[in-house]
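Please predict the structure of the following assembly.
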Amino acid sequence: MKEISLKQIVESILFVSDAPLPLERLYAILEEFEREDIRAALAALTTDCSSDKRAIELVQVAGGYQFRSRAAFADYIRRLKKIKPARFSPSALETLAIIAYRQPVTRSEVEYLRGVDSGGVLKSLLDKKLVKIIGKKDVPGKPLIYGTTREFMEIFSLKDLASLPTLREIEALAGGGDDPEQVPLPLPEIDQSINY
Amino acid sequence: MLTSDQSTLFTDDGSIACLVRTEAFEGPLALLLHLIRKNELDIYNIPIAEITRQYLDYLDVMRELNLDVAGEFLVMASTLIQIKSQMLLPQLTDSVEEEQGEDPRAELVRRLLEYDRYREASLLLIGREVLHRDVFARSFPAEELDSLPLDEAIPAVEMFELVDAFRRILARVPKESFHEVGSENISIADRISDVLEYLRGRESVDFEELFAGSNSREFIVASFLAILELCRLKMIKLLQFENYGRILLKSAIITDSEAELA
């Protein structure tokens, strides 16, 4: 039998794994190998797969390593898979983004940021296992606090929470420069409203 | 066949046809942002009167279309009017420096900017390579998954599922019809050592198995609290392979031989 390499061993394990495989787990499975060598094998595999000739990539996602097909083949793969990908409504995405960036966050904090009741959206995100309840806030009323799940990172191809796309910086509010006297804009409609 | 029947049914009935739930504006902040963009206004210097008029016009149209105008939209309308009235009123205070600082619009602008930031972030999220849409990974049918050895990669049990499982167990216990005076005195500490004993030398234990010992509510509650306490102390792990599937207990204490490896 031909000699097999650690790289091949790692490749075979990752191929069969049904979920992103954490490095720690790989160390435990391949306990007879040096950790350094395992990391080197992973790096070599990643490079191998990054070639344009390959349809499969080795990606780091949700704290582990996983083989994934390249986006270019999505159209063909979808013919194989019967399941339709989950659709996200704008409100679901908005809520998800707020939770992802602000976690741990309470429902009322989400609602303040969105300006609308978010109970229904939150529930559907909980059902889809994209967010979870991670505890209670130690303030009066003990509101539940929410955070994102491992599934969230898997779905959105995130290595970890730190690799969320950076939020745009909010420019400092124009404090002094603007004229606070842009007041006189006489509009009859508004005056009527005030009369209520 | 069925669908064509339904469609005629709906088009016949005008009132139903009008009940359209629009996703166009997720809320008042989204509507305001839209108006600001449409009019190419400077968000740091919003002409409140103009924006309020357009905002109220929108609400009117929505009502005419028989769209559900949520309460939040009305709250925002009153906020806008309040801001405008504050801006019209002369500043009464003498301490000019202090009070002049905050523009009545500042709070609203902050909220709009913050909201816009998250909306942008949500577009970035959905623009990523989404699993099952753009990229695919291997997946296994549930049975195969079930026979795999337990490991860290299996998601921990969600709190609600645990509570659900507990409720199911509790529901199986017949409600005691008489009042028992002498209590059985089952302590949580006892149950903790029982559970640990039960786990010794075993890979995992079915959550429900631990409640098999007795039919008393006291026993069940004490057992459940013992499991929670063990989780808190990180001495056990609760795992669940699939939604609503059975919950397994696994010892999380690293034995000596395992500790050497780590």
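The beta strands of chain B are 205-206, 236-240, 247-251. Chain B has twelve helices and three strands.
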